[in-house]
């Protein structure tokens, strides 16, 4: 049963539900004055910066054991494994999981690029996703991740990309509890004469411990003749909501890699990626950084013997 741990009148009251249904009931009862907290690393920065007010009640979900499991595997209809990552799994646990690094290497690289160990040992994957600008997002978008929510009535799935768009328009999702992030199987089997490109880059003003200027995740399959068989591209960075670059994907897929295709791809990124600029890096600088990262990776594939 939920316990009231904190009674100091000026501090928020901290509730510790033991399961997801109880957490959702608390949220329904407390309304806007009750806020879910996982690692609290992001909420803390909002309170300190004054961009969010300290609520009267915190619903601490870090003790819900079913949400902490780094991965659960289930067989899909094609006899492949679907991977479910608990929303309260720590970034450090996700980073160190060998199944994730083998099958979803972009996510492992993303984890290595987030903050420092002290933060990664507190922060959760769910909190990173729900920040809407977290560095895990470009990798998860490329893997076409699904979100498993609990809305107080029951659990349901929603594509991550769909939620990102929905979250721009309304805040209804803030009443829901994110239970897990679901990843479909990735076909990693070696295909004769085909090359796999899986890269994740985060470029900041310094190498580590700095917000991203541009973050790029690429997952592609290229034939020996340099035809692009499959191409998924996602970009984000700073306060920009990450997204797939569908126009560039369409241009690239089925085409043969050559210098003119790289030029077209560069132009497409500039036209379709509209990052949020700030005093440190303008929109145009971020666009060019993302376009250069993508094109340079494709250029490297062109050079392969
Ligand atoms: C020094 C520092 C450096 C950082 N560097 C980076 C960085 O490099 N890259 C990066 O992406 N982020 C960075 N962050 C931001 C943050 O640490 C991460 O985004 C982290 O993953 C947030 O997870 P959390 O568990 O701490 O979230 P919390 O702070 O607990 O919650 C964040 C938001 O998500 C909601 N929430 C959390 N879990 C759930 C859930 N399961 N269901 C419903 N709502 C939920 C909360 O209500 C809140 O609105 C940094 C933070 C700090 C303090």
UniProtKB/TrEMBL annotation:
Record GO terms (molecular function): FAD binding; oxidoreductase activity
Full protein name: FAD-binding PCMH-type domain-containing protein
Xref: InterPro entries: CO_DH_flav_C (IPR005107), CO_DH_flav_C_dom_sf (IPR036683), Diverse_Substr_Oxidored (IPR051312), FAD-bd_PCMH (IPR016166), FAD-bd_PCMH-like_sf (IPR036318), FAD-bd_PCMH_sub1 (IPR016167), FAD-bd_PCMH_sub2 (IPR016169), Mopterin_DH_FAD-bd (IPR002346)
Oxidoreductase found in the keyword field: yes
SUPFAM superfamilies xref list: CO dehydrogenase flavoprotein C-terminal domain-like (SSF55447), FAD-binding/transporter-associated domain-like (SSF56176)
Transmembrane segments: none
A Pfam family it matches: FAD_binding_5
Record SMART domains: CO_deh_flav_C (SM01092)
Lineage of producing organism: Bacteria, Bacillati, Bacillota, Bacilli, Bacillales
Domain FAD-binding PCMH-type: 7-188
Species the sequence originates in: Paenibacillus sp. BIHB 4019
